[in-house]
Write a structure and sequence with these properties.
The protein has 693 residues and is an alpha/beta fold. The chain has 24 helices and 28 strands. A seven-stranded mixed sheet has the order 5-4-18-17-16-6-7. Strands 23-27-24-26-25-28 form a six-stranded mixed β-barrel. Strands 10-9-8-12-13 form a five-stranded parallel sheet. A hairpin with a 3-residue loop joins strand 25 (626-631) and strand 26 (635-642). Helix 8 packs antiparallel against helix 11 (268-275) and helix 8 packs parallel to helix 14 (309-322). It starts with 8 loop residues before the first strand and ends with a strand. Bound molecules: iron/sulfur cluster. The site of iron/sulfur cluster has 13 residues, from helix 1 and helix 7. Residues 8-66 form the 4Fe-4S Mo/W bis-MGD-type domain. Pfam families: Molybdop_Fe4S4, Molybdopterin, Molydop_binding.
């Protein structure tokens, strides 16, 4: 605009796209976002002055024409009409209340939002348990890193990255797997590339030769679905050649002998046969990791979105521990979290079926009593349903009503043909979002929430840093911050909530959550972020986990023997290809935000499938031509992109496009037994040239 920047509102805030947690100053004239500029470097611990295309330019969605500006309810013909907050909230209170009265609170479930603030999410968990009387509250972490959380919690104690972001630059070696870092976590990729330029080794194991592999000192193509096999192969090489860190193993771990025994079956020949990685590559990677003074093990969803993702993560946790790569600068495990606030809002704040905030187990009597007392309600010790289980439970009417906040389940759930049926058949569905997304099409009531530029609170990024999010413009139309909507609803449903600000909510969080014991808005703002655990007001926060002890009963890492496992769907004659899913740089998740950006649509307008040149030649298709991909669950038609980035037996389709949603092909029943994460990364499919309809 014409206005000079100094005349505008400006706030230092945290990016609302990915969990890198970049900070920058946002400028607004009160009605729209006009610019994002670097903030003072000391206030931007993760990114300094860099940001990526999304953080810098992607704000059109805030003022998009189809932004929801008023509540919607169904009229007598079943169409949406605008309603007052009063009417909409009454309908919600009645709809949810009726199911609760008739079938008990357990018949209701809540999907909380990893896009929303910590304060919003704390209240979503509290609302589910206190107001609705259900433990079935979960969020999108179930679809991505819940196997990371389960695997790391079991071995080390905390389900989170042990490193601080700077360690990506301090490491001598980085082993990356299942991470398209350049596209999904751009600013982290920049820091990794810088370190490689300075001489660090980068080992990339991935079914796709993703862009970061161009910088790798070693790239190994792996067959999707067998990660624990090649990881155990590396561990075997290390222990059999006495390259492990003996004193670390002796002093800081238990279970080493079991692991050593369990990895013996993963001989070089077997690893090659199962994963396609030749013995010399396993040996080279093992030598490099063992020789490094400090190594970071980084991964994203390629490791976790499997029916045995938790085992994959534990295999990686074993490798990091036996090489002594924990609790020191430049070393550790780093699951790169996806959504801006999935670590905080999706995990730490406890909108989870099994945990209260700070990973406090709901089955623990003492802990449950603390929350029953604080929230003045009874809470069942029985775990509720995980997100993926909610959709299966709805088939048997064990879930009858849902409250879905900032989550586009109709596209993001595995097996969306099934998810659509569930959403359509629910007795009552409330959707709270910025847009009438694909999920809202099935709602009885839609409540307009506001985005991160219109509210104040905190996000917790991928390295456990709690950072401020500040309001720079007024909520659009009649939209409201999630916490205010929840407060109104709680009060209509017989409770007395009386928060004046999100800062007050954080006070309640810290009083009940030891991990966040010293976290307050005042400190987070004043100190430019705080990394948990932060036990009390005098505690400075924790850069790196496990410098002295692991968060286990005896303080030692509890190594877990991991054997052979395979994906639920194995390619066969009918479905000979393995499909994996993932992201592209310009887009974000189901595209609800980014597909509203004119600039982004220009670069990334359409869905596609990556097909290896040999496969394309066999099919007789060229780039740009439509192909039909079919699994046991459904089919989609997408244009081919012929590339050797994927192997001849693999296909890759991104997750961002509603018109040919790749989750029509994935399966809703193949879940990790410990974490209930779906197997997005392996579906057996067949492919043929599109024949039209
Ligand atoms: Fe935002 Fe992530 Fe890009 Fe940083 S890297 S600007 S946090 S989307």
């Amino acid at each position: 605009g014409d206005k000079r920047l100094e005349e505008l509102n400006v706030e230092d805030t945290t990016c609302g796209y990915c969990a890198v947690g970049c900070r920058f100053d946002l400028y607004s004239d009160g009605e729209e976002i006009l610019a994002a500029r670097p903030t003072a470097e000391e206030d931007a611990p993760v990114n300094g002055i860099s940001t990526c295309v999304k953080g810098k330019f992607s704000y059109d969605f805030v003022n998009s024409d189809d932004r929801l500006t008023s509540p919607l309810v169904r009229d007598e013909n079943g169409a949406f009409r605008e309603a007052t907050w009063d009417e909409a909230l009454s309908r919600v209170a009645e709809g949810l209340g009726a199911i609760k009265d008739e079938h008990g609170g357990e018949a209701l479930s809540v999907i909380a939002s990893s896009k929303a603030t910590n304060e919003d999410n704390y209240l979503m968990g509290k609302f589910a348990r206190q107001v609705l009387g259900t433990n079935s509250v979960d969020n999108c972490n179930r679809l991505c890193h819940s196997s990371t959380v389960a695997g790391l919690a079991r071995t080390y104690g905390y389900g989170a990255a042990s490193i601080t972001t700077e360690d990506l630059e301090l490491a001598d070696c980085i082993l990356l797997t299942g991470s398209n870092t350049t596209e999904a976590h751009p600013v982290l990729a920049t820091r990794i590339k810088q370190n490689v330029r300075d001489g660090a080794d980068l080992l990339v194991f991935d079914p796709r030769e993703v862009q970061i592999a161009e910088y790798a000192t070693q790239y190994s193509r792996v067959k999707p679905g067998y990660d624990a096999v090649w990881i155990n192969g590396i561990t075997r090489y290390i222990v059999n050649n006495d390259l492990h860190d003996e004193s670390f193993v002796a002093e800081r771990t238990t279970g080493f002998e079991d692991v050593k025994e369990a990895v013996q079956e993963f001989t070089p020949e077997r690893v090659e046969e199962v994963t396609g990685v030749p013995p010399e590559e396993i040996a080279a990677a093992a030598e490099t990791v063992a020789a490094a003074d400090a190594c970071v093990f980084g991964w994203t969803l390629g490791l976790t979105e499997h029916s045995h993702g938790t085992e994959n993560v534990m295999a990686m946790a074993n490798l990091a521990a036996i090489t002594g790569n924990l609790g020191k600068p430049g070393a550790g495990v780093s699951p790169f979290r996806g959504q801006n606030n999935v670590q905080g809002g999706g995990g730490d704040m406890g909108p989870l079926p099994d945990n209260f905030p700070g990973y406090q187990d709901i089955a623990d009597d003492e802990i449950r009593a603390k929350f029953e007392d604080a929230w003045d309600c009874d809470i069942s010790p029985e775990y509720g349903y995980y997100t993926t289980q909610m959709f299966l439970a709805a088939d048997d009417d064990d879930v009858r009503g849902m409250y879905i906040i900032g989550e586009n389940a109709a596209l993001s759930e595995p097996g969306v043909n099934h998810a659509e049926d569930v959403l359509r058949d629910l007795e009552f569905l409330v959707v709270q979002d910025l847009f009438v997304n694909e999920t809202a099409q099935y709602a009885d009531v839609v409540l307009p929430a506001c985005s991160f530029v219109e509210k104040t609170g905190t996000f917790t990024n991928t390295d456990r840093t709690v950072q401020m999010v500040k309001q720079v413009m007024e909520p659009k139309g009649d939209s409201r911050p999630d916490w205010k909507i929840l407060q109104d609803l709680a009060n209509r449903m017989g409770r007395e909530w009386d928060y004046d600000s999100s800062a007050e909510i954080m006070e309640e969080v810290s009083s009940l959550t030891p991990l966040y014991g010293g976290v307050s808005h005042e400190r987070v703002d004043g100190e430019g972020g705080l990394q948990w655990p932060c036990w009390d007001e005098d505690h400075p926060g924790t850069e790196r986990l496990y410098t002295e002890a692991f968060n286990t009963e005896n303080g030692k890492a509890d190594l877990q023997a991991v054997g052979y496992s395979e994906p639920a769907e194995i390619p066969d004659e009918r479905y000979p290809f393995t499909l994996t899913t993932g992201r592209v740089l310009y887009q974000y998740h189901t595209g609800t935000m980014t597909n509203r950006e004119a600039g982004i649509r220009q670069y990334s307008p359409n869905n596609f499938v990556e097909i290896h040149p040999e496969t394309a030649a066999e099919l007789g298709v060229e780039s740009g031509e439509l192909v039909t991909i079919e699994s046991r669950n459904g089919e989609i038609a997408v244009p081919a992109q012929v590339t050797d980035r994927v192997g001849p037996e693999n296909l890759f389709v991104p997750i961002h496009f509603a018109d040919s949603a790749v989750n029509r092909l994935t399966d809703e029943e193949h879940l990790d037994p410990a974490a209930a994460t779906p197997e997005f990364k392996v579906s057996a499919v067949r492919v043929r040239p599109y024949e039209g309809k």
